[in-house]
Specification:
Structural class: alpha+beta
Number of domains: 1
Largest sheet: 2 strands, parallel
CATH architecture: Orthogonal Bundle
Shape: globular
CATH superfamily: Winged helix-like DNA-binding domain superfamily/Winged helix DNA-binding domain
Number of helices: 6
CATH class: Mainly Alpha
Length: 195
């Protein structure tokens, strides 16, 4: 008897520190992103998607399942054997930041570092691709760091744009004619002062 497939919710917010720390690894962030992009997939499909070996992924998948961020679904016949399928708890996983909690701050710093390392790896792969589009309205490869002086209105506008980007990501679905892109955004206030 097969398990009934639940629809994937749009957003899941993590509050428990032990669940947050699971995402302080670039590999686990990459695995969770793969499962979010594919919606339901096997370890072989995650390996193909990430370019990593299946055996290297098993401990990371196990931690993501144990933390509840990935869910074991049905199994399906693949050749002469059955393979386990996985799906994400939600299309987008976020955490609640609490600057008064040193452990929470340490997690967010570790997560930011993990995302930075993963984005560097993905950007290296993208720029090595001869089909990368680096200019124009169909650009799919870009990396930049920009400093900006923003007032309250400009900051609100930036956050509206970021929210719109996440909305587009959340609403996206795998398709034959779609192009998969990785998007990473960090917004960080800077304590340096103008001289």
């Amino acid at each position: 008897m097969s398990k009934k497939k639940k629809p994937i919710k749009d957003m899941h917010v993590i509050y428990k520190p032990e669940e947050m720390w699971v995402l302080a690894s670039p590999i686990r962030v990459e695995v969770l992103n793969a499962v979010c992009a594919l919606e339901e997939c096997s370890v072989a499909e995650i390996a193909a998607f990430t370019g990593r070996s299946r055996t290297s992924l098993y401990p990371h998948i196990e931690q993501l399942v144990e933390s509840g961020l990935m869910i074991e679904g049905e199994s399906r016949l693949a050749g002469k054997r059955y393979e386990q399928l996985y799906h994400p708890i939600a299309r987008t996983v976020g955490t609640r930041h609490d600057s008064s909690d040193p452990d929470n701050v340490a997690y967010h710093q570790a997560y930011g570092n993990a995302v930075g390392r993963l984005m560097a790896r993905l950007h290296e792969r993208a720029t090595a691709n001869p089909d990368a589009v680096v200019r124009g309205p169909q650009r799919d490869t870009n990396a930049c760091l920009q400093v900006a002086w923003v007032d309250e209105d400009s900051l609100a506008e930036l956050n509206e744009l970021v929210d719109r980007i996440w909305e587009i990501c959340r609403d996206s679905r795998p398709s034959e004619d779609g192009k998969l892109v990785n998007i990473g955004i960090m917004l960080a206030p800077d304590s340096r002062k103008k001289d």
